Amino acid sequence: xxxxxxxxxxxxxxxxHIDHGKSTLADRLIEKTGLLTHREMKExxxxxMDLERERGIxxxxxxxxxxxKANDGHEYVLNLIDTPGHVDFTYEVSxxxxxxxxxxxxxxxxxxxxxxTLANVHLADEQGLTIVPVLNKIDLPSSRPAEIIAEIEEVxxxxxxxxxxxxxxxxxxxxxxxxKIISDVPHPEGDEDAPLKALIFDSYYDSYKGAVxxxxxxxxSIKKGDKILMMxxxxxxxxxxxxxxxxxxxxxxxLRAGDVGYITASIKNVKDCxxxxxxxxxxxxxxxxxxxxxxxxxxxxxxxYPAEGESYDEIRDALEKLxxxxxxxxxxxxxxxxxxxxxxxxxxxxxxxxxxxxxxDREFDIDIIATAPSVIYRVTKNDGEVLMIQNPSxxxxxxxxxxxxxxxxxxxxxxxxxxxxxxxxLCQNRRGDMIHMDYLDPKRVVLHYELPLNEVIxxxxxxxxxxxxxxxxxxxxxxxxxxxxxxxxxVLLNKDLVDAFSMIVHKSKAENRGxxxxxxxKEVIPRQMFVIPIQAAVGSKVIARETISAMRKxxxxxxxGGDISRKKKLLEKQKEGKKKMRQLGNVEVPQQAFLSVLxxxx
Amino acid sequence: MEKIGLYVHIPFCHSKCAxxxxxxxxxxxxxNKIAIIRYVKALLKEIDLYEQTxxxxxxxxxxxxxxxxTCIDGKYIHEIINHxxxxxxxxxxxxxxxxxxxGTITTEKLDHYLSAGINRFSVGLQTTDNNxxxxxxxxxxxxxxxxxxxxxxxxxxxNINVDIMFGLPGQTSENLHHTLDTLIELSPEHISAYxxxxxxxxxxxxxxxxxxxxxxxxxxxxxxxHEIINKLKINGYYQYEISNFSKKGFESRHNLVYxxxxxxxxxxxxxxxxMEQIRFSNEIIMSRYLERIENGEKPSLDQTVISDSExxxxxxILGLRLNEGLNIPQLNERxxxxxLSENEAVIxxxxxxxxxxxxGDILKLTLKGIDxxxxxxxxxxxx
Lengths: 602, 383
What we know:
Chain A is an alpha+beta fold. Chain A is built from 14 helices and 32 strands. In chain A, β31 (582-584) and β32 form a beta hairpin. In chain A, α7 packs across α8 (350-364). The radius of gyration of chain B is 21 Å and the shape is globular. Chain B is an alpha/beta fold. Chain B has two domains: 2-259, Alpha-Beta Barrel (TIM Barrel), CATH 3.20.20.70; 308-382, Arc Repressor Mutant, subunit A (Orthogonal Bundle), CATH 1.10.10.920.
């Protein structure tokens, strides 16, 4: 039985395909519920990180509490739980959804259902959520609500005829959405007097408060001073503060079943506050933890090393802090001949990897060198031993290998039908197998492919976008390991092997990729005082080669009117640049060299 | 009495060249004509503001540079030099140079210059090729240059420098040789040869960025440089600095002040000074420069006290530009140190790379070291 209080609470997320207007709608909901005036609204307030705004996507979850006086005369508390909108963050999305009773599904009325729309609906269904469809961008002349309603009904199987038709951009019919949430999304239930059972669906690190956990209270209640137990990490803490997010933190006396809020408990170790974990009372624990907790599995790995002049310890601190918000980030120390001490880091996917790299740079101001990304290969040796290889340098000699397997993903690609040919070419190029193809509507097609993950992590998404003029969308999940003809591609700079450039590739791709790497490196490595050969090799066989000729000139222009300081500034700038170079043997290599082997436009 | 070099900046030109990023204003503009009068007045007042300093030094060299100092009325130059002579002591054989561009020199101006005591001219030719001249935004052609050069010579000036440039977009080796041959025929006492470097914000920089012009590659540019050195050497011009060549005894004494890291005072817009181990430079915005002087203030900005180690570094990098190289015992005495042992690692590395050589007391750049001089300077720079 729900308490009277719970009847006036709604916990919901907004789900959408990227660019369909999720963040804009969130902003309008906040605005409409009067927490902030229009003037105070920063564009897209929920996307608090610059990086998110730049990419137009939400990476870090945020949650906010809204207060809305509905047409029925009651005041409702609406807890809006934001979700990240990318295929890499499926687990995070699933935990956010698990904290809700309903999800507002935003569909762009000009674009219709896309790959992530489907993927997100699927996740929401798994959590048993009530889905409230909303048609956005109704202000655009190209919107076609009737067709999109039909599409939602056919493809997703949700009745959408009374879906609010809105424009989040200009604020049209936002009340329609709020009323729909109140009428359609079930209020929370859960015994307020039962032992505490709360789901951590997000967390962040605050330098004063320690780890702050966002929680949905499923049963029971929590207040300051309570002794709590994190059931998966099996750690105990004393609650320092409980509060709600409006969206700035606001301390409250307690949180009860059905509420969404945060707790702080002087949690120093970031690993003790994992997304998906269940919080309960240490003295009187709940019997069963909430289902669905998993330690996120990394799909893509790369080495992260301090750039010249940066410290290993600072990177470790940064990674530890990032890991708090991000249970999916894993790392362990490793050593490279070329780069010294660093970390092998695991990510959910390539976007996740790029985001972490950029956050280390922007939020912690540390220059790093990242090695080429790699998936995990399964290697069976002649003696039957099975190795999981995340770092190409750890691959045993070919003579010791009986079999190599690589991860295969199941990918759903939605494209307008005129681009089907392009995408079939792309997938074939990336060693994909087409399983089947469905028409979503007369104009759009879902292509079901099985693709090697190591092909997907190299620019696949960018290639998909460029080959479909931005209309293609992608969603994938791990399928299985499959035997494959793989080789290790090495790069030699001035005859020395640079382990940081090594990568495992399919045999058929080795020559092409080797040539591209040599060309890229020739472009980015500046001339030095001697000739530098660049070679790509498989085993002892050189398959591509370029040469950087020796520097012939490095002179400052005339000394004008005694302006020595200008000369010195130029030299200092040059010195700074030199300091950022990485010394590999006697060759100075700029940071970009390591980035340039990460991406291949084919 | 301390001996110093004096620099006076005249920031006016007929029009700005396409590669120039120095402080200068085109005089075609009516506003700027009025500004010239105000500027000269300010310069005179700036000299007064340095009254104490000027009283306590002896001026060995005066360089009036620009811009194009010869593009303004000769009487102004005369007035400025006269005022300086009243305010400070000039050495008996002081070198007094004016920078000029072809086509800006008249008999009347020459009269002013000579009676003010100017005894050295520096003329910007750049190249004898008229097409190249117009492509880099020079307003003169080769004939105008010859006329100006001859007029200066006929007035009795016995020390003339000509500036040339190499590594111009579209410049060929033939063109360079033609320029050198023609110049050798005219027989100036001094030749400066500068490689064109495109500075950000100049029209040529933009043109190159957009692919409208193409700079010669490093190989060709360096070949040109080496050909200049050889040809001038054969013809009696010895190279005494990376970009400078002269007949014996006609080295630019003013430039040697800079390269030997000796004190100099710069007057005028954006002028640079180094006095008593303090470097400073003047306002670079005309209105601010004028305003500060008119308010009775020295127009300097950015005073930097040079530490001993920075001063040593400057002495090293400036001195290495000179073909006579660094005199190590002199250096040791000036800075109270043992230069060779304190820089042992750097010196042995650079020697091994073939960039420097030590002969007796002298440390100097090799030809390869000249081409890669920044690499040498960077090696001597503190971290």
